[in-house]
Amino acid sequence: MKSDNIVCDNPAVSDVKLWLCEKYVFSFLFKNGKNAVLQALELIERCKQEEDILEDGTSIQSLEEESDKLKKRLKNLQTMVMDELIDTNDFKEHKAEIDEQVSLIDRAIAQYEIDKAKREKKVFDLEAIKERLNTFIDLNGYKVNEEMIDMFVERIIYRGIVNGNDEFLWVMNLSGEVTDTSAKYKIQGYDKAYSDSLKDDKKFNIVARMMIPMEECKRYCEEEANRKFRSKFWRPITIKIAIQ
Question: Do the Cβ atoms of 132 and 174 come closer than 8 Å?
């Protein structure tokens, strides 16, 4: 991939492969797959807004159930005191522990509600995205216009060889805002955890997957791009499209 006039020298990320991928990506988004993209984004948005999970993976429902159990336990302890099955000191000790646990749960739920209110805005501006998807894209040439790439592509991630294919994740910016992401995604400083996260589909809003077979790679290379096809530098290509 080209960045600040530096071209990636990995043979899996040649210009011709990117030209071929971009034709597939833009054709899907702006011609064949508009409705599929919008339906996928609506589903993603619905799931995110309905999510009642804390950062550690605990569900709000499980916290509420635990709180109810603790309150019932406290009532049972009160009954045991009345029936003289436990003394007052034992009751006070258990009550203090239960009150503290209930208080912790109440604070966690209250904080969740505060955080939820802050993020209650839409995940995607679907109207703006619909407008972008209705943009006219000329795909008659052997590659997509550079201005269109700058306008719509957030980043391209090469994930290496996956199941025998070169896998590329195209993250698209359809928000209506054109921003310079060159500094945001500089490769320096990437640690293993971050690199691994780039290979995790769950970290991205993926709306489409497609595969380009070798014969199509060869045909495009020779007939459209007018380049010599060297099979040792090629594999079938897997493309995944995500919306930023």
Answer: yes
88-125 pLDDT per residue, tens = 888 898 999 999 999 999 988 888 777 776 655 566 77
- 198 within 8 A of 44, measured Cβ to Cβ: no
3-state secondary structure of 93: helix
Q: Do 22 and 29 meet the contact criterion of CB atoms below 8 Å apart?
A: no
Burial of 225 (0-12, 13-18, 19+ CB in 10 A): middle
Quick one: which of 168, 192, 144, 187 has its CA closest to 241? 168
Name the nearest CA neighbour of 12 among 25, 23, 24, 1: 1
Q: What are the backbone angles phi and psi of residue 183, rounded to the nearest 5°?
A: -75, -35
Q: β-strands 153-162, 165-172: how paired?
A: antiparallel
Question: Which segments of the chain does DSSP mark as H helices, in order?
Answer: 15-27, 34-50, 60-82, 88-118, 126-133, 146-152, 192-197, 214-219
pTM: 0.62
Q: How far are the Cα atoms of 81, 152, 176, 177 from residue 147, in angstroms, in the given order? A: 77, 9, 14, 14
Average pLDDT over residues 153-179: 87
- CA–CA separation, 81 vs 74, rounded Å? 11
- What contacts 204, CB < 8 A, 6 or more positions away? 169, 171, 240, 242
